[in-house]
Amino acid sequence: MEIVTWDMGFKLLLLMFAGIILGGLGSAYGAMVGSLVIGVVAQMSTLWFPVDLQYAWALLVLILVLLVRPQGILGRAERVG
Fold this sequence. Notes:
Elements: H1 9-23, H2 28-44, H3 54-68
Helix pairs in contact: 1-2, 1-3, 2-3
């Protein structure tokens, strides 16, 4: 059971932002794939680590993927300028 607080949506908003960025900005399918990856990682991490760290593992996956592929999973590399 969870109590109602003024910042309840922040954790969900953080995961939504991570999913969209992971999938690639401007790609609807990328946002779906990125959100699925973030959600699976966040929930599967609770099998081995404390529940308090599930958001940290999801953001760690975001950081690792963006280091390898900065435009996201399904994003296109664009040259600006």
